[in-house]
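Hello Y.,

Per our agreement to keep a running log of every chain we model this quarter, I'm adding this entry. I've kept the format consistent with earlier entries: sequence first, then predicted structure.
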Amino acid sequence: MEKVKLGNSEIEFKPLVFGGNVFGWTVDEKQSFALLDAFIDMGFSLIDTSNNYSHWVPGHSGSESETIIGKWISKRDIRDKIQIATKVGGRRIDNSKPNLKKEYIIKSVEDSLLRLNVDTIDLYQSHHDDLTTGIDETLEAYHHLIQTGKIKWIGASNLSPERISESLQIAEDHNLPYYIAIQPEYNLYDRMKYEEQYEQLAVDNHLGVISYYSLASGFLSGKYRSIDDIKETKRYDALKDRFNARGLRILDVLAEIAHTQQASMSAIALAWNLHRPSVTAPIVSATSIQQLEELSRAVEIKLTPEECFLLDKASSY
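Predicted structure for the entry above:
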């Protein structure tokens, strides 16, 4: 598959994004390096992380992912071959509330740049909305960072469609930077929120769309085919409600198409995301090279119109 452009930005990449939430959490530094090397060797380039990954792990500071990526960058001569997307404003280890105040953003970007071992961040994203801070203050902070070369483009993750629209309007009215991409939850099982609330907004404003939870927390991977398969796993609470008639119908159709295409169910689920015209690329996380290779097949899979119809029908509400 050819490279895609992220919204109205100059960021071009092969349409699969590596989710850095696993670095320092479910994979150690050595394995993280191996996965990143493999990702780049496959021709991919966009790596997504956050300044608070993985704060949810006991004993972690919330800067593990950026730190590992930075160590990897410092050992590889590949800065011109990759794009780095990170975030600011999410919860931290102290469970503090989202913060998008100008002073906090300017301090946070310096910390991220230091950890990542880069001079500039390609895509800097508002992680969660801060309703106590004016949108203009947040955008003014980003304007300062763009002017000083610390960041190139900005995006939004987990902001409501109303706040994204308001941000775009304020940016236009006051000649401030505008969000060129959004990062919504979207997958074959969780369709309604994005399709009803965000998709037209993205299309109308030429926003890039990088979908997270693209495999519905592993539900669409094919690893679990019944609720009995998850009873002894840590994913039980996250996945138990998905094993309903609709969810099982989706899994059956995924399995059928995966067999026909000689691909994994995960790759078919990601290929479905990629066939959605408004979606730029899904985020994927992998803990092994084999898993990454399976997921990477998604960009080459050509779903037939009939296969797309079957997946759409199975996942309809």
